[in-house]
Amino acid sequence: MKAKEHVQEVGLRALQHVKRYFPKVTKVSDADKPLDLIVTQNDDKVGRKKDHAECAMAVAAKRQLKVDGAIISRRIVYLVRGTEATRYTTSSATLKEIIAFDRGGYFAPGTYTLYNPPERERLGLYKQSGDDESGRDRHTKNKLVRHVFTKGVRGNLNSFDDEAA
Question: Dihedral through CA 16, CA 92, CA 97, CA 110, nearest 10?
Answer without folding.
Answer: -110
